[in-house]
Specification:
Shape: globular
Order of helices and strands: EEEEEE
Largest sheet: 6 strands, antiparallel
Oligomer: single chain
CATH architecture of the domain at 20-78: Roll
Radius of gyration: 13 Å
Structural class: mainly beta
Helix content: under 10%
Number of strands: 6
Number of helices: 0
Distance between the termini: 33 Å
Strand content: 35-45%
Length: 86
């Protein structure tokens, strides 16, 4: 089975009419079901009735909305300018 993002997908239609916000830090790392972190680009944020959602652009070119969970979506180390790296 192929590893999948741990972040839950936002159902189609949930975000109709919601305002999109530009991210302050677009480069992110996302936790996958195999326990590994993989890169993604945050295209937009959106506040909706279940919290926050992030529109993610994946390295393979597709995009989808995922419910934000701060334990599964982190800033990329490159975005931190080397802060926190050993």
């Amino acid at each position: 089975m192929t590893a999948q993002p741990v972040l839950t997908r936002v159902p189609q239609g949930e975000l109709i009419g919601a305002d999109r916000l530009s991210p302050q830090w677009p480069q992110a790392m996302v936790l996958f079901s195999d326990g590994r972190w993989r890169p993604a680009t945050i295209v937009a944020w959106c506040r909706y009735r279940h919290g926050w959602a992030a529109l993610l652009h994946w390295p393979d070119g597709h995009e989808d909305w995922r419910h934000h969970d701060p334990q599964c979506l982190l800033r990329s180390v490159e975005q931190l300018g080397g802060w926190g790296s050993a």
